[in-house]
Amino acid sequence: MSRTRKSNRNKKPTTVEIVLDSSDTDTVTDSDSDSDSDSSDLHSPISELFRHNVSKHRSCWRHVFSSSIVQKKRITLGDIKEVKKSSMCLLECPPRFTRRERSKRFGKKEEVKELMRPHKVAERAVSRKREKLDSGAFMRYFENLWNSFSEDKRTSFAYLDCLWFSLYLQQNIHKELKRDIKTKVLKWIKNKCIFSMKYVIVPIVCWSHWNLLILCHFGESLQSETQRPCMLLLDSLQGADPGRYEKYIRKFVLDIFMEEGRPEKKDLIYRIPLLVPEVPQQRDDVECGNFVLYYINLFMEGAPENFSTEGYPYFMKKDWFSPKGLDYFCQKLYSSAT
Fold first, then answer.
1. Which residues contact 166 (CB under 8 A, 6 or more apart)?
2. Is the pLDDT of residue 247 over 60?
3. How many whole angstroms separate alpha carbon 164 and alpha carbon 185?
């Protein structure tokens, strides 16, 4: 019997509704995603996703779908394929090869064992000090660090969730979804009242690398002669050109000013100094998250009462701290989180 195949020419794109399994995490409702009452990033709608394994990494296709879960969006299979191509996740399980392929690719049994090791086992095999922090782990350690400072010290500081900048920056997604995400991120930032703070800590994770952006005195006049707003970008891998972030940071800051309804003009906002001090550099390719946490700790300890470009770079120099100091800090921080 001959069979005829139906034409798919007029078939509409298949859509997939992403729904969280109730056994994995709590249900995220519309009221959760639109809530303005949360004063802590650690309880914000996007941080709610840390309890689900799809957001256990940096800005990648998993984060795109995680944000879609919150937004209750429908995504076509074509969108899924395109986003996966452009925003790969570095925490994907290693590929499986046949015995013949493994023998061709690797000559040592140890290498084959390492490749075939299940992802979770491999993750536990890496010491915490050498582990490359994902967004969930980073925020857990940051929460302990934040709470270690006194109430008086914290009154001069505010911080943004480490995912907000990367969510704002998402490019390879549908325009409507991108606009919705930007709107929500800017709304969450507005609720932080950053213009009433001396310093705003903004951890950035983009292109699988951690940086620290610090907004200084954003409540001051941009035309002040004594105390003008400025920005600090602390990068532990300056050989990778931290200047590549500048256009994204300036657009991010401009939108924050616009969302707040500030009177400053666009040209003045774009002239806010972005300073990149020569700080201690990481020793390998996995320490960037640890460096950002230590930058935050030392900056909060020694931040001047009034930061000025005349006194720059203050303590932020190449000899700011030693490798031993960083290792001791990480050991202490990790032990407090267990």
1. 58, 59, 63, 204, 205, 206
2. yes
3. 6
Among the listed residues 151, 131, 300, 132, the one whose alpha carbon sits nearest the alpha carbon of residue 212? 300
According to the model, what pLDDT value does residue 67 have? Answer: 58
User: What digits encode the pLDDT tens for the residues 180-200?
Assistant: 999 999 999 999 999 999 999
**183 or 44, greater pLDDT:** 183
Instruction: Say whether both 169 and 218 belong to one domain.
Output: yes
Q: Are residue 101 and residue 173 in the same domain, yes or no?
A: no
SS3 label, residue 310: coil
- Is residue 177 within 8 Å of 219, Cβ to Cβ? no
Name residues whose C-beta falls within 8 Å of residue 71's C-beta, 6 or more positions apart in sequence: 33, 177, 180, 181
Could you report how far apart the first and last alpha carbons of the chain are, in Å?
Answer: 66
Please report the pLDDT score of residue 224 as a whole number.
85
Distances (CA, A) of 45 to 28, 42, 62, 277: 8, 9, 16, 33
Do residue 163 and residue 112 come from a single domain?
Answer: no
Comparing C-alpha atoms, which of 261, 283, 281, 287 is closest to residue 321?
Answer: 281
Domain that holds residue 107: 94-132
Average pLDDT score over residue span 109-131:
41
pLDDT of residue 83: 67
Global pTM exceeds 0.70: no
- Domain membership of residue 5 (yes or no) is no
Report d(CA 103, CA 240) in Å as an integer. 35
Using only C-alpha atoms, the chain has a radius of gyration, in whole angstroms, of 22
Same domain, 162 and 117: no
> Above 90 in pLDDT, residue 219?
yes
CA dist 175 and 192 (Å) reads: 26
Three-state DSSP state, 17:
strand
What is the predicted pLDDT for the residue at 223? 87
Same-domain pairing of 174 and 249: yes
Peptide bond between residue 313 and the one before it cis (omega within 30 degrees of 0): yes
C-beta atoms surrounding 55 within 10 Å: 24
Q: To 10 degrees, what angle do helices 77-86 and 61-71 make? A: 140
Phi, psi of 223 (to 5 degrees): -105, 10
Rounded Cα distance, 259 and 188, in Å = 10
